[in-house]
Design goal:
By secondary structure, the chain is mainly beta. It has a single domain, classed as Distorted Sandwich (1,4-Beta-D-Glucan Cellobiohydrolase I, Chain A), CATH 2.70.100.10. The protein has eight helices and 33 strands. The chain has a 17-stranded mixed beta sheet that branches. A three-stranded antiparallel beta sheet has the order 1-12-11. It is globular and about 60 Å long. The N terminus is likely disordered.
Length: about 450
């Protein structure tokens, strides 16, 4: 998944990843309830909470109010090198609703796209906590994960995402001595894109070779990337949706050190330790252009219940992951996933290794998903445990066209795999969506997990 997050800086705040803890604003995690279900169909409510990713937090010197990072540049006096920066800088608690447009109510989480208070905040990313200092870790083999989503107010170019990544449960607190903040402050993010815009990786500032972005006044890239296996359960707006497993040759969160290991595009995209493309199932891209959207079979103008089942070969939690299946529930009706309708492809309606192999061949795509282990490796990650991420974001790299339009834009849209949604190829420009659709939001609610068939 391509991913970019932005917080527009003001006098005291900037987009950062810090590792120490400041004392200006107390951190108070918004409550969010989830339900664990059993094979008998009974579900028990669990009181959990969410935490804002440290990427959005104010990073300043530990003894004062001087920004360590402003706009898209570091203060070189405070951050001359990775370890000194970690020593000098602290991140603060968050005003979730006032500054970031993040609210919870019972089992519902609302993420607003643009929030204007003393400063302008764009997008957000949060994690589900098990307790105040530990992320909730899910083991999903032979289990299903279900949630409701209202994405009726998400236009082209915006992504309301729910997914899992193999982050450290404590945010890297125990592994890296310079990380004194941990999961309580949303540290330790990673995904299969091995993002270079992460400000702190392995407890050290990513200041080496830092290059400010040409298109984003609040972002840049450093030498290192933060890599780990990723399971995209839901990447969507009102016009398109996809679910996508991504594999890596490593387990847990790993810092990649150079362009080849990180798989930096375009020269080394398929040489890195992680599978950036993944094996996606997007109904529109798979040939059913009337399945999901406003007023369609899965009607995105209304709340949708999304069910994802992680099936194993022997129907046990210890078996090998063999299939990832999708169901929808809306207006009391269970809706089976769409089937592929592409010449040369069997009518698949779920993700299997064979589906991935056949899809890549027909689309002419590189099958890095299989070369890095396919569903077996994805299942091993689910065994080790993954952390739940929910976000809303726009895309400074590809305008979200890979999700909801024709992509690549210079390819013939009649060719298999190019058309992914009805959005225009001129849509999704961040400057446009931020000015024209600032009131966009996504609501995730009614999260449930348990054995196959227990959550809906």
């Amino acid at each position: 998944m391509l991913r970019r997050s932005v917080l527009l800086a003001f006098t005291l705040c900037a987009v950062v990843r810090g590792q120490q803890v400041g004392t200006v604003t107390a951190e108070s995690h918004p409550a969010l309830s989830v339900q664990e279900c059993t094979s008998s169909g009974s579900c028990t409510t669990q009181q959990k909470s969410i935490v804002l990713d440290s990427n959005w937090r104010w990073l300043h010197d530990v003894d004062g109010y001087t920004n360590c990072y402003t706009g898209n540049t570091w203060d070189t006096s405070l951050c001359p090198d990775p370890t000194t920066c970690a020593t000098n800088c602290a991140l603060e608690g968050a005003d979730y609703s006032g500054t970031y447009g993040i609210t919870t109510s019972g089992d519902a989480l609302t993420l607003k796209f643009v929030t204007q208070s003393q400063q302008k905040n764009i997008g957000s990313r949060v994690y589900l906590l098990d307790d105040d200092s530990t992320y909730k870790v899910f083991n999903l083999k032979n289990q299903e994960f279900t949630f409701d989503v209202d994405m009726s107010q998400l236009p082209c170019g915006i992504n309301g995402a729910l997914y899992f990544v193999e982050m450290d449960a404590d945010g890297g607190l125990s592994r890296f001595s310079t990380n004194l903040a941990g999961a309580k402050y949303g540290t330790g993010y990673c995904d299969t894109q091995c993002p270079h815009d992460i400000k702190f990786i392995n407890g050290e500032a990513n200041v080496l070779d830092w290059t400010p972005s040409d298109t984003d006044s609040n972002a840049g890239t450093g030498r290192y990337g933060a890599c780990c296996i990723e399971m995209d359960v839901w990447e969507a707006n009102s016009m398109a949706a996809a679910y996508t497993p991504h594999t890596c040759s490593v387990s847990g969160q790993v810092r990649c050190e150079d362009a080849v290991e990180c798989g930096d595009s375009p020269d080394h995209r398929y040489e890195g330790i992680c599978d950036k493309d993944g094996c996606d199932f997007n109904s529109f891209r798979m040939g059913d252009k009337s399945f999901l959207g406003p007023g369609l079979t899965v009607d995105t103008s209304q709340t949708i219940t999304v069910v994802t089942q992680f099936l194993t070969a022997d129907n046990t939690t210890s078996g090998q992951l063999s299939e990832i299946r999708r169901l929808y529930v809306q207006n009391g009706q269970v809706i089976q996933n769409s089937k592929t309708n592409i010449a040369g492809l069997d009518p698949y309606d779920s993700i299997t290794d064979q589906f991935c192999t056949d899809q890549k061949e027909v689309f002419g795509d590189t099958n890095s998903f299989s070369s890095l282990g396919g569903l077996q490796v994805m299942g091993e990650s689910l065994d080790r445990g993954v952390v739940l991420v929910m976000s809303i974001w726009d895309d400074h790299t590809a305008n979200m066209l890979w999700l909801d339009s024709n992509y690549p834009t210079d390819a013939d849209p009649s060719q298999p795999g190019v058309a992914r949604g009805n959005c225009s190829t001129s849509s999704g420009v961040p400057e446009d969506v931020e000015s024209q659709s600032p009131n966009s939001q996504v609501v995730f609610s009614n999260i449930k997990y348990g054995p196959i068939g227990s959550t809906f």
